[in-house]
């Protein structure tokens, strides 16, 4: 698996020249050097040589009596796995299996009445044998999904067809969940979910559709699937911070949440508050934020009373140092405000606008800009206008300050517009705040001094007590030693 | 859930009001409450971190009756604040009145042990474990055990996870009836349906087994272990491997064979590479725990499989353990086992396709020579070493070279020197400066083992070439290397081989090389002693005081300060002082600064030696500083900036130097120069070496 395949001549010359200079190769250079790699599945362990496959007759040439038998034989033949890391071994057998898989896909999608009860077991066995495997260790331990090329599954030429077959099977009009549930059970689903960690986006895409179909057709598995996704997410948030398929699982959840019956069960609310909201803390939020925000908004559209806890939750996890995430949070808040009810808005306006006021005065202009864009949103503007008496005092200080101090002229221009809008909403209050601004600042400074003073006193008190204690301990000691002397 | 902490500062409860007048003892709790409700997280965090101050001020009684209930009831805060709180409470026993009252601390810690954030929970558990030791046996059963039970049967997985870490601390001191209950709770957590809880239980299984009675270990722990080791999730199974080490230590050989080994064998062949990796990673511990007989029958074959595992991660982990495994074999028969059962597999790994595997092996393989003795080493290991010395991956070669001392003891290094040399030369010229740096660091060791002749003949030129490397870190390491070599080979050698070459560089057209001479002198003067320093080095340093580049001049000042203690007073008085005085009048601000600093040090030394020093020409250090700051400043400069700039300039000097390679250019310490203190910019410079010309002058 060594990636030391010699790079193209020109590139290598450029790199070594760069390396001569500093020894730090830039990421882009390193990447150019590395070829697209693929990854074998850890499942394939050298078990000696594979039996050679012999082509079976075509299904379409068989009589209808033989067809069923032949179908099962072909399924069994496809259970044999090949090593795709070795690109020269078993070429003939690999080709036979590929052709057979293609034929099977075609067979189940064009013929009716071929998915009979007796075939289910072989079908599921074939699927399991091919797709269920321990995912191999990542080649690139500091894999950055945003920057790096994913490692692709080496055996994709076969696996793709197996997934294809699986989907056609699930979607076939002949497919009967009542029979399939004997084979597609909790254990099956559990293994399927683990595959979502695959680094290969093509595989995750198939898995997404497959899981969606299973969730739709197997009512008995729904609660289980939700719970397992729950566990995967919790593990992702609190234990490993690594799982490749978060976005795909969230996408499925988006449609699941859409279908929740009202009133929402406690289980679902708990999922929102204890899983989805903490998920915002993840390092790689950018990779799945769109899907996550969609899920959150789905919940709020179902049940508006969740608005307050959700916004308070987001405020709790508000990014402290990552401006990129802060911009995402602001985007999500705007999505929520788009659907918020005015009564709910009143409940959270104070903490929310305190945060927005901080964002507006962020020295990172993208954060400030994103927050100021709220004032371009008609609905949000109407909410602000309704509650201007509350919001203006919260926002005024920051806006006033940045209108004078921000380094970025665009931001200053935006702030002037916002101040103008706010002034038009309540001119009187605006004037009052302007005139009391200085006094307010001074009061804050004074408070600051008082705090310091108090802590100092407290420290002194501590010292005094410690001294007393020491003295009394000393006295005790001397008393004791006196008694001993006697 | 969140948030109550934020907004609540009502009017009138300002700290002023709380602390105002009269009763001093009244305000701490008010201050705390006020601070804990502050909108600024940092202030809330500060007050939590000073919790012990507050508790001390309150006294034990009020801490118990007011502070703790307040903490338990009102804190729903940011995780960072909670973490600080969890940590503080672990050391609070004294502040609530000693062991008799330790249980008062349980309620706040209990709620902290149920929060979602892992770090907070873990810290709370850690504090609870600490406090459990301070409980009396009665209090433990009355308060602590019930808490563990509550956590163990909590609704949300977090509390059950936390409970797992508390069983082992309360079990040993509990009564038999309670013990049975504790075991029951632990059992149910081991089969919890949340994998997070099973993982927590599996990771504490070994620890819990250690405090159990042997019968219970056999009747209860082993079945739990068996179940966890065959869990459907590999993340649980791999933790069972860790537990295996502790459990194996407790059981007799027969029990081991019957109860544990089947599971361990299964783990070594698990279908998940993570589990197999864990077995490889814990191999030495397992080996010690199961004893020599089972090792020979079971572990060695398992180890062979791990060494040829299909995943490189597993092979690398196993390769790391080769030496330890061999060392821990019973001496009798050890050689045969290694030669017949281990070595063939090692030979394969030398040409593995994965460089991590090879480099893991290279880092331990040399250790085998002491175990196998001279003849085997020469016959079997040497070819492997030689192959690895030629490996395409520099890390492999480096790992071999860095462990040469092991081989040296057994067969002497001469056997290797023929192959060693090309390997060293290649590493010395590697394109990656980190590789060059690594090999430099082994030079003194190599020099010691190869001897002075071999060194002079083959390696000396390399060492000198590093002095003019284009990366500062390499030049710096090369300088230190010279010093260590002189310590090894003595001053005479230095005088003949090193010093002349170093001094020649003082005339180099590249000012960086001229500065390297100064750095070498700084490093070598002490090792070389007074005579060489005074006679050979000092004249060169003094001559360089007239260099056209300011950077060289202020380094002259620094060098003079450095070698001052080695020189005798005549030289100081007659030669050094005048030069420093002249530099003290330099037009460049920094040269002036360092000259004055050096002057004060030299003057101090002269005064110590009771030589009369006229007050007028003894600028004291603060005086020098003052002069420095009082110079007329350009627009926009402030005193602070100047000193900051200087600090930054000096600090980044090293890095910036690496950036400036332009031979013959005259780098001036102009404003542009002072700007390059940002490390990122420095890196940028590194990449455009040769393009940077600092030709502006300050005025």
UniProtKB/TrEMBL annotation, chain A:
Record-linked InterPro entries: ARM-like, ARM-type_fold, PP2A_B56
Gene Ontology terms: cellular component: cytosol; nucleus; protein phosphatase type 2A complex
Positions with biased composition (Low complexity): 38-50
A matching Pfam family: B56
Domain of life (superkingdom): Eukaryota
GO biological process, one term: signal transduction
Molecular-function GO terms, alphabetical: protein phosphatase activator activity
Stretches with biased composition (Basic residues): 27-37
SUPFAM superfamilies: ARM repeat
Chain intervals for the UniProt region annotation (Disordered): 25-57
Function (record text): The B regulatory subunit might modulate substrate selectivity and catalytic activity, and also might direct the localization of the catalytic enzyme to a particular subcellular compartment.
Family: Belongs to the phosphatase 2A regulatory subunit B56 family.
Record-given protein name: Serine/threonine-protein phosphatase 2A 56 kDa regulatory subunit
Automatic annotation (TrEMBL), chain B:
UniProt keyword terms in alphabetical order: Repeat
Intervals holding HEAT repeats: 28-66, 105-143, 182-220, 221-259, 260-298, 299-336, 342-380, 381-419, 420-458, 498-536, 537-575, 576-611
Keyword set includes Zinc-finger: no
Disordered: annotated segments: 1-20, 613-643
InterPro entries (UniProt xref): 2AA_helical, ARM-like, ARM-type_fold, HEAT, HEAT_type_2, PP2A/SF3B1-like_HEAT, PP2A_Regulatory_Subunit_A
Domain (Phosphatase PP2A regulatory subunit A/Splicing factor 3B subunit 1-like HEAT repeat) ranges: 292-373
MF terms (GO), sorted A to Z: protein phosphatase regulator activity
Leader peptide range in chain numbering: none
Residue ranges occupied by any Phosphatase 2A Regulatory Subunit A helical domain in the UniProt entry: 102-286
Biased amino acid composition, Basic and acidic residues: 634-643
Any single Gene Ontology cellular-component annotation: protein phosphatase type 2A complex
PANTHER family registered for this protein in UniProt: SERINE/THREONINE-PROTEIN PHOSPHATASE PP2A 65 KDA REGULATORY SUBUNIT, SERINE_THREONINE-PROTEIN PHOSPHATASE 2A 65 KDA REGULATORY SUBUNIT A BETA ISOFORM
Protein family: Belongs to the phosphatase 2A regulatory subunit A family.
Protein name as catalogued: Serine/threonine-protein phosphatase 2A 65 kDa regulatory subunit A beta isoform isoform X2
Source organism of the structure: Camelus ferus
Originating gene: PPP2R1B
């Amino acid at each position: 698996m060594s990636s030391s395949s010699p790079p193209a001549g020109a590139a290598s010359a450029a790199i070594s020249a760069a390396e001569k200079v500093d020894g730090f190769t830039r990421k882009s250079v390193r990447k150019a050097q590395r070829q697209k790699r693929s990854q074998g599945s850890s499942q394939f362990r050298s078990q000696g040589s594979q039996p050679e496959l012999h082509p079976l007759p075509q299904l379409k040439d068989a009589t209808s009596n033989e067809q069923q038998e032949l179908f099962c034989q072909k399924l069994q033949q496809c259970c044999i796995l090949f090593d795709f890391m070795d690109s020269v071994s078993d070429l003939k057998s690999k080709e036979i299996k590929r052709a057979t898989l293609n034929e099977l896909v075609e067979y189940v999608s064009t013929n009716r009445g071929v998915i009979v009860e007796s075939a289910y077991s072989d079908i599921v066995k074939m699927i399991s044998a091919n797709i269920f495997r321990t995912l191999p260790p990542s080649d690139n331990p500091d894999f950055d999904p945003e920057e790096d090329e994913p490692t692709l599954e080496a055996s994709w030429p076969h696996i793709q067809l197996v997934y294809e077959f699986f989907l056609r099977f699930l979607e076939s009009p002949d497919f009967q969940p009542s029979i399939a549930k004997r084979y597609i059970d909790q254990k099956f689903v559990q293994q399927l979910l683990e595959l979502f960690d695959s680094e290969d986006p093509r595989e995750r895409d198939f898995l997404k559709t497959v899981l969606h179909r299973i969730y739709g057709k197997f009512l008995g598995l729904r609660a289980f699937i939700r719970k397992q996704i729950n566990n995967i997410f919790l593990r992702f948030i609190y234990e490993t911070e690594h799982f490749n398929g978060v976005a795909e699982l969230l996408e499925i959840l988006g449609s699941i949440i859409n279908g929740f019956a009202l009133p929402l069960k406690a289980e679902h609310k708990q999922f929102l508050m204890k899983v989805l909201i903490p998920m915002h803390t993840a390092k790689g939020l950018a990779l799945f934020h769109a899907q996550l925000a969609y899920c959150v908004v789905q919940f709020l559209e179902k049940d508006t009373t969740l608005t307050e806890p959700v916004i308070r939750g987001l405020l709790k996890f508000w990014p402290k140092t990552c401006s990129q995430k802060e911009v995402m949070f602001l985007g999500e808040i705007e999505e929520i405000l788009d659907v918020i009810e005015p009564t709910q808005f009143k409940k959270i306006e104070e903490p929310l606008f305190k945060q927005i006021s901080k964002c507006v005065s962020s020295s990172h202009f993208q954060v400030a800009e994103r927050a100021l864009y709220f004032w371009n949103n008609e609905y949000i503007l109407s909410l602000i206008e309704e509650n201007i008496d509350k919001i203006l005092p919260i926002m005024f200080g920051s806006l006033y300050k940045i209108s004078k101090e921000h380094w970025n002229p665009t931001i200053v221009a935006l702030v002037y517009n916002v101040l103008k809008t706010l002034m038009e909403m309540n001119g009187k209050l605006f004037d009052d705040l302007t005139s009391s601004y200085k006094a307010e600042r001074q009061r804050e400074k004074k408070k600051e001094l008082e705090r310091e003073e108090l802590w100092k006193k407290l420290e002194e008190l501590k010292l005094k007590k410690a001294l007393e204690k020491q003295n009394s301990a000393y006295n005790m000691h001397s008393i004791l030693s006196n008694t001993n002397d006697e | 859930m969140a948030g109550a902490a934020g907004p609540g500062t009502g009017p009138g409860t300002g700290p002023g009001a709380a602390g105002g007048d009269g009763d001093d003892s009244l305000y701490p709790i008010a201050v705390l409450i006020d601070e804990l409700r502050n909108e600024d997280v940092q202030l809330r965090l500060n007050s939590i971190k000073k919790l012990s101050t507050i508790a001390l001020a309150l006294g034990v009684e009020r801490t118990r009756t007011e502070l703790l209930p307040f903490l338990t009831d009102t804190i729903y805060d940011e995780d960072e604040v909670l973490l600080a709180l969890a940590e503080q409470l672990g050391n609070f026993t004294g502040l609530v009145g000693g062991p008799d009252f330790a249980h008062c601390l349980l309620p706040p810690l209990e709620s902290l042990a149920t929060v979602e954030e892992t770090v907070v929970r873990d810290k709370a558990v850690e504090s609870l474990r600490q406090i459990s030791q301070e409980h009396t046996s009665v209090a433990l059963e009355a308060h602590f055990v019930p808490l563990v039970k509550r956590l163990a049967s909590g609704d949300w997985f977090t509390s059950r996870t936390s409970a797992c870490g508390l069983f082992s601390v309360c079990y040993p001191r509990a009564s038999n009836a309670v013990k049975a209950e504790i075991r029951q709770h632990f059992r149910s957590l081991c089969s919890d349906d949340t994998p997070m809880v099973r993982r927590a239980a599996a990771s504490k299984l070994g620890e819990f087994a250690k405090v159990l009675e042997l019968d219970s270990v056999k009747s209860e722990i082993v079945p739990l272990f068996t179940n966890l080791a065959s869990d459907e999730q590999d993340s649980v199974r791999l933790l069972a491997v860790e537990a295996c080490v502790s459990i194996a230590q407790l059981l007799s050989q027969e029990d081991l064979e019957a109860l544990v080994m089947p599971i361990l064998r299964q783990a070594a062949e698990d279908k998940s590479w993570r589990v197999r990796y864990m077995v490889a990673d814990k191999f030495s511990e397992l080996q010690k725990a199961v004893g020599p007989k089972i090792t020979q029958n079971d572990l060695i074959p398992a180890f062979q499989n791990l060494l040829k595992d299909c995943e490189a991660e597993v092979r690398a982990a196993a390769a790391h353990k080769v030496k330890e495994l061999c060392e821990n074999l019973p001496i009798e028969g050890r050689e045969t086992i290694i030669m017949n059962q281990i070595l063939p597999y090692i030979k394969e790994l030398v040409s593995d396709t994965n460089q991590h595997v090879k480099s893991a092996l290279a880092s331990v393989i040399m250790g085998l020579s002491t175990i196998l003795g001279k003849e085997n080493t020469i016959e079997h290991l040497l070819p492997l070493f030689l192959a690895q010395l030629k490996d395409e991956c520099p890390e492999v070669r480096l790992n071999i070279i860095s462990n040469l001392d092991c081989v040296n003891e057994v067969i002497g290094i001469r056997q290797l020197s023929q192959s060693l040399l090309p390997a060293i030369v290649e590493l010395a010229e590697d394109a990656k400066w980190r590789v060059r740096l690594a090999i430099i660091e082994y030079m003194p060791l190599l020099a010691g083992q190869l001897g002075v002749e071999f060194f002079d003949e083959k390696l000396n030129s390399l060492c000198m070439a590093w002095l003019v490397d284009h990366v500062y870190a390499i030049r710096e390491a090369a300088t230190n290397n010279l010093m260590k070599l002189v310590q090894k080979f003595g001053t005479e050698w230095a005088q003949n081989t090193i010093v002349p070459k170093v001094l020649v560089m003082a005339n180099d057209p590249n000012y960086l090389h001229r500065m390297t001479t100064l750095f070498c002198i700084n490093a070598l003067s002490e090792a070389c002693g007074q005579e060489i320093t005074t006679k050979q080095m000092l004249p060169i340093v003094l001559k360089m005081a007239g260099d056209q580049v300011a950077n060289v001049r202020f380094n002259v000042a620094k060098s003079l300060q450095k070698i001052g203690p080695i020189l005798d007073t005549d030289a100081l008085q007659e030669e050094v002082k005048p030069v420093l005085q002249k530099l003290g009048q330099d037009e460049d601000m920094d040269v002036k600064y360092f000259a004055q600093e050096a002057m004060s040090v030299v003057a101090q030394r002269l005064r110590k030696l009771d030589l009369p020093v006229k007050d007028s020409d003894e600028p004291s250090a603060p005086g020098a500083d003052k002069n420095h700051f009082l110079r007329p400043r350009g627009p926009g400069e402030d005193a602070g900036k100047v000193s900051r700039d200087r600090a930054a300039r000096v600090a980044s000097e090293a890095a910036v130097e690496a950036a400036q390679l332009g031979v013959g250019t005259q780098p001036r310490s102009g404003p542009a120069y002072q700007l390059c203190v940002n490390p990122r910019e420095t890196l940028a410079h590194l990449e455009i070496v040769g393009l940077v010309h600092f030709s502006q002058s300050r005025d």
